[in-house]
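Let's study a protein:

===
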Amino acid sequence: MPDYVTTFLSLARTQSSTLSTLYSYARLLQSNVQTYIIPLINRATQQPDIASVVLLLILLFISLKVLNILFNTVMFWIRLAIKMAFYGSILGLGMWVYTRGPEGVVEDCQSLAATWRGECAY
């Protein structure tokens, strides 16, 4: 006998508990399918109006899930844009204070306020 056949047979003997466990789970699954799923399929084929309603409900559920995914995607990008604008404005304000100094920022704000009051006086 070739070596690989004897190796396979020895592995099959040592793993028999695992194989028997998998086999028992497969049998349990088969019995549950026969008990619960097959009667539902038979009822749906005998009454097609129920099957069409169930199909419409499934399609509605799937479409709502897709819409939820799209909504979350759009909200992610909106939140990202808002966060980038917020932190960008903080960075810009910090750079403005760094380059002009606190006194220069106060002067710029005073000149901007004076210009604004002059423009709104009309």
